[in-house]
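Exercise 7.
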Amino acid sequence: MVSVLLVTFEFSKKNIFKMGNVITLLGYMGSGKSTYGKLLAKRLGFDFIDLDDYIISETGMQISDIFEIKGESWFRDLETESLKNFIHKDNIILSLGGGTPIREGNMEVVNESTKSIYLNASVDTLYLYLKNQKSKRPIIKDLSDVELKNFISDHLSKRLPFYNKAKLSVVTDNKSIDEIVEELMWVIK
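Solution. The predicted structure, written as tokens, is:
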């Protein structure tokens, strides 16, 4: 039974990866999209693009300022437009913002044109990382530790249906950075 499943997976994997050379990483904030994406890009000789950093560079504004001044809808429009600029490029690792997949049509665009991988981290893993990063993330900076864990749990449960649309998923809990990068290397081949 196991060998049949492996053969089926290998066949499916080959079909999935007949498209171009864009690998898209998605997941909740703190799931490691930038960390693992940069290391994966280095291993593959690809360029690394963080969609949020690209938007910051293009607008000259921080994401939190864009939300405050222009509004979330304006930001999501720009995010979708920016996403479409990269999906047909060659040899890039594209790290999506945590909210990019929730915009209607974005995951369809991502899956039609790229190799999408959901970095699947549990609420506990995300909490342990984000509680030390609160000052760097405006959306959570004023939350107590209890509020933070509840926020992550509620927010993640709303986003999971979108994240689960990715073609592949790599669970990141209880693994070293090197183990996760090795697993990413394995699933994209």
